[in-house]
Amino acid sequence: MSLLAPLYALGLAAIALPVLFHLARRTAKNRREFAAVMFLEEARPRTARRRRVEDRLLLLLRGIAVALMCVAFARPFFDSTESADGAASPPRRLAILIDASASMRRAGLWAQALDRAQAALDELSPDGRAAIYLFDDAPRCIAPFAEFDESHTSPTRQRGRIADPADDDRNGGRSGHSPLLALRAGVASRGSTSAARQALRALREASPGWSGTDLGAALTAALDDLARGRAEGSATRDEILLVSDVQESIRLEPIDWPPHVALRVAPVVAASETNAGLALVADSGEVPSGDRIRVRVTNAAASDRDAFRLQWHDSAGAPTGEPLDVHVPPGAARVLSVRRPPEAATATRLVLTGDDHDFDNALHVLPLEQRAWQIVFAGDGAADDPQRERYYLERAFPETPLRCVDIVPLEPNATEIFHGRCDVRLIVLADPLGDDRAAAVRRHVEAGGTALMALSSTEMEGTLRALLDEPAVRLAESDSADHRLLTEIDFAHLLLAPFADARYSDFTKIHFWRHRVVELPDSLPAHVLARFDNGRPAILEVPRGAGRVIVFAASWNPVDSQLALSTKFVPLLERLLEFGRSSGIESRQIAVGQPIRLANFTTDAVETVEIDRPGASTIRLASGAETFAETKSPGVYVVSAVGWPDRIERVAINVPPQECRTDAMPLERLAALGLPAVALAPATVGGASHADDRRAADERARRNAESESRQKLWRWLLALAVGVLILETWLAARRSGNATGIAEERPA
Amino acid sequence: MEVARQASPSSRWIDPATLMRIRSLELRARTIVEGSRSGANRSPFHGFSVEFTEYRPYSPGDDLRYLDWRLFARSDRYCVKRFEDETNLRCHVVLDASRSMEYGSLAYTKMDYARTLAATLGYFLHLQGDAVGLVRFAADVEEMVPARYRPGHLRRLLVALEKRPAGVETDLGRPLATLAERLARRGLVVLISDLLAPIDSLAPHLSRLRFRGHEVLLFHILDPAEARFEFDSPAVFRDIESGRELHVDPAAARAGYLRRFAEHEESIRATCARLGIAHRRLVTDEPLEIALTEFLRARERAGRRPFRRLRPAGRAA
Question: Which residues in chain B are closer than 8 Å to A742, comparing Cβ atoms?
């Protein structure tokens, strides 16, 4: 029995009305105030008592009449279609997205997530299909729809369990009542679907990683798979179940959501909300310099503690230096400047203690080390000859804690420019070279190096030709008697970009007494960065292979120009140094999931690169590998070139700082990002999705209306109510007749 | 009785008819009362007045002004002459303002009747030159206007009478105990109440008042419906004070009611007789002027009692 308009059932409250009327009538009748009640005793007239019994019967009849009318208005009917309800709806396809980011490493979350996924699979109807995705910063499908389809045709089905596949094999063939997760069915009943077996094992063995959370990518992947299946097959009810801790730092771009796919969120909640995180405050990839590093300690808003402690640990894991107490109120973040311990060379790990979840409590920081760079200088000038270029070059690069620039002469018979462990940033040519040495320089440039040609004389024409591999290059001495200035400076170019600001863009103080006229054939893709005021090119960039040659048409020796004495000289060379190719690793302080860029490390000379991962096997990469993307866990990775014992680089990899923010995001924010109305799934994941619910509810309402109009129970109920009312009237008439009789009988 | 309704609220409870009837009478305290002004009532203090009472042997320290030299000449004895001091009466009208007084089966309530009585008495005593105070009580003393004789005091009294009763139930014991503590000087206490409360609690407090030397008059105000209980149809009787409800068929309950009521009255009467309290039952359909006149006449007839307490001369106020 169901009600078509159940709101009318509220009218049952009207039963109270006759009762209220009855009580009101009783109390209002023959009431008399009296002062001397202390002398009275209760003396009830007999007639009144008898009338009250009759009143009760009347009351009951009136209540029944009201109730019948209310139920009739609620339009009851016998529901005959309930059993057919499930069969009518199209089969469901469920994509389960399980968050495997670092924040899911918190105690208990992963087990909850697996339970949620299991519950969702359990309540899937026999013809439903499911796919399972794990996602962190990238989604991966561990059980695609296809396998479920395959096993779906299996004659014997069994309810799915995330369990040991070996166990499954032992129990294989046992048939169950509720056929469900085809995944398990495939394994259990036939034991043949290796993909399904793998998926099952993958889900069982999966554990949350250390990466960030990119929900957008995961949703897009799942939507793509659902759309692909939809294009092939018939009408289905598509649904995505998101099993996640939905932390507020979850990455999600607005998605163009297809209307037919429902999204449910099954949030998992950690038992303890006290979580503090530690992150480095620095530009991406930059190794903090100086003896202090700036770290940010964040505390979750739901934390119940605010006192934490920071402690340095050395590479062996032993504490070193003095601990530092930090107070961070819940929901706040503090940036601290932490002094590196005296043993700065070995202390690589800053550890935070005091909270309940330690996945984000360690910060790997590379120790400070000075990097040696080389500038290869090819020229005749002595280091102490102020008339020549080298004198100024030596003085342009003072030593800093992070960098030591060494000016080394190009060896007279060098055929290869590669100075072992050192990092050749720049080759400076100030005098003519022999052909073989020029060829060596050219090879270096083509491999990605940078060469600076300071044309001190027209004799360098041959060298320039050899370097650019272009015989049509000509050099001539300029004939102008007056000094020249720089004009048409291309501040948009990376080399000169630092001077773009109006405060630094004045080059008119630099006088060029003499300069060379460079004539390049049009076939060379040369780019003029600056010209002299007579229109001749002053600074040229000529790309060669992966590298480039920068040509100064006038050198910086005092005979040619005032460049070396100007304020522009050192910044320009510094810029060239940065501009030059590094043979090291670009970003050495990165987050889990970001690739290690090896492009510059693996030069021609390096055959193989070894990457030593903390707590995992060492990986060998062949030469030419530009990146190493398997940065799946935090720690200090050691990258070494095989055969070059001194070429070792370290890369510190940390948990992404946004994973530290473990506070749950309000689910309304998902709706704001373009996701459909998100239904918060109950603890036991179940029930149809929101949109489908609505559709099914409409369908059910239509069917109910049909049943009701067929059965027309309300007519019978109204007839019954009328009958009851007639009975009531008769009874009331009889009662009042009796009452008058009694009144008459009573003696005055 | 016609309750006079006059325009001035302060005098609307004074019944001129009653006043005319009792004008020629006086209400005098039978016992000795303490006053501050010479008047018609006897004072416990001896002082200067015309009424000689007795001689007393002289003892050193007595004021020589009172030495009777003639007696000394006659009898060669030093005697001090003593006079009876007359004073004004300090009367407190104690009015029951409980909810039960608001009952009335006639056009007016018991409270109206009691107010008229109180106002008339107060005016009468004021004319007589006595100090009149008013005490209104319900569960406890609600308002107390001390006994004074001064211009405007009567008006203050009448304004106090105007106030609506705020009390709910009658408790005779507590107000009387409070009163006994607060009335320091002996005087006349006129208690006007319907006495619809157990009389047992009343007796000790009345006796305490008497014991402190006050003279107590008790006007027992009753509604004719209470006195005779002439209802005929069954009804729910609701207690005007407690809200208690009783289904009562008067035909059946009348006999029991009258019996219990008579017992109650009898016990009041007996208590009053025992304590020497003048008691008068006033049913509100009785004309007030007749009732009051009879009462005052009866008191006059009874005359003075030879009761007095003496004090040595010289310490008179």
Answer: none
